[in-house]
Design a protein that fits this description.
Elements lengths: L3 H7 L1 H16 L7 H83 L3 E2 L4 E2 L4 H13 L10 H177 L4 H12 L11
Antiparallel strand pairs: 1-2
């Protein structure tokens, strides 16, 4: 049996330390917000963790011997149980084979019973896969002729019940299908009679409409002939009137044309006179414009020459100012005016390499 005293002996050195640590832990209050208090709290926790590590080390040391014993115990027990299991398997296999054969036999019988029980039905969709009473009647006859023999063994009664239930179910389905087929046949008959009646009414209506259409066409032809005769008479009278009006119009048109030709001739003569006068005026204006253009051109050339001369004078003055400023700057360095002027001209003429005046 497990002895608590032996466990206490392992940790006897730690019990006194634990009591002292509890007292210190309960009585000590740290100022965690201050750096010193925070550091003291961390130091206290570090000492507690050291004690915890010492206890864990002692536990592992004391437990090692027990673990070695437990491992040896497990290994030996495993060998013994393996030998016992081998002896069990010798007898268990024949029993399991018998049980498997029995399960297979029962499963086969159950499958046969299910074939009877679900005859004509798709088990997954839970609906009949036959659609007519004739097909269902043939299936009923096949199930009715099925003999439930000794192959169903102790499930023979269950097979009989499944057969009776299936025959009853099939009879109900056959009656349902026959009723539906009879209703469909009656509906087809009524639909056919209705279609024949509608066809006769349609034919009669077509005949009446054809007769009415023929009468309408005859009336329209008579009216059209009467209208055409009247229209022809009106056309002859209208053409006669139009011929008289045309002759009178052409006569008046000839008079109007003669007067218009006379007016156009007078207008043409006046236009010719006006155009001649306008041509003389345009020529005079052109001569004056040419003279003015020449004056403007000469003025522009004179202005351009004056601008160029002013630009050259301004540039000359600008260059003179730059050279003078450069000369004065050199003279400030101690050069004479003559030497300073020579040096400026040498720079201007690019006689000194890598030195230039910025104008």
């Amino acid at each position: 049996m497990f002895e608590l005293a032996k466990v206490n002996e392992v940790f006897v050195d730690f019990y006194k330390q634990l009591e002292e640590a509890k007292k210190v832990n309960e009585q000590t209050v740290f100022q965690y917000e201050t750096p010193a208090g925070n550091k003291a709290a961390r130091s206290h926790m570090y000492k507690l963790r050291q004690s915890k590590a010492a206890v864990e080390s002692k536990r592992k040391e004391a437990k090692k011997e027990s673990l070695d014993f437990g491992k040896a115990l497990d290994s030996e027990a495993k060998k013994i149980t393996a030998d016992i299991e081998k002896m069990i398997e010798v007898h268990e296999k024949p029993i399991k084979d018998i049980e498997d054969r029995e399960k297979l036999r029962v499963a086969n019988i159950q499958a046969s019973i299910d074939n009877i029980k679900y005859a004509g039905i798709d088990k997954e969709l839970n609906e009949y896969f036959l659609n007519t009473s004739q097909e269902m009647q043939k299936l009923y006859n096949d199930v009715f002729a099925l003999e439930v023999g000794e192959e169903f063994a102790e499930f023979k009664t269950v097979a009989f019940e499944a057969k009776d239930g299936t025959l009853k179910r099939l009879l109900e389905k056959i009656a349902e299908l026959k009723k539906s087929e009879d209703e469909t046949a009656e509906l087809d008959r009524l639909r056919k009679e209705s279609a024949e009646r509608e066809q006769k009414e349609h034919d009669d209506r077509i005949a009446r409409e054809a007769k009415a259409e023929a009468e309408r066409i005859a009336n329209e032809n008579a009216m059209r002939k009467e209208f055409e005769a009247k229209a022809e008479q009106e056309r002859v009278e209208r053409e006669k009137k139009e011929a008289i009006e045309k002759a009178e119009f052409e006569k008046q048109q000839a008079v109007d044309n003669a007067e218009r030709a006379k007016r156009e001739q007078i207008a043409q003569e006046e236009r010719a006179k006006l155009e001649a006068e306008q041509a003389i005026e345009r020529e005079r204006i052109a001569v004056e414009q040419a003279k003015q253009s020449e004056i403007d051109r000469q003025n522009a050339e004179n202005q351009l020459v004056a601008n160029e001369q002013a630009k050259r004078e301004a540039n000359k003055r600008h260059i003179g100012n730059i050279r003078r400023q450069a000369k004065e700057s050199i003279m400030e360095l101690g050069f004479s005016e003559v030497d300073a002027k020579k040096l400026v001209m040498a720079i201007h003429n690019k006689d000194i390499a890598n030195v230039a005046i910025n104008y």
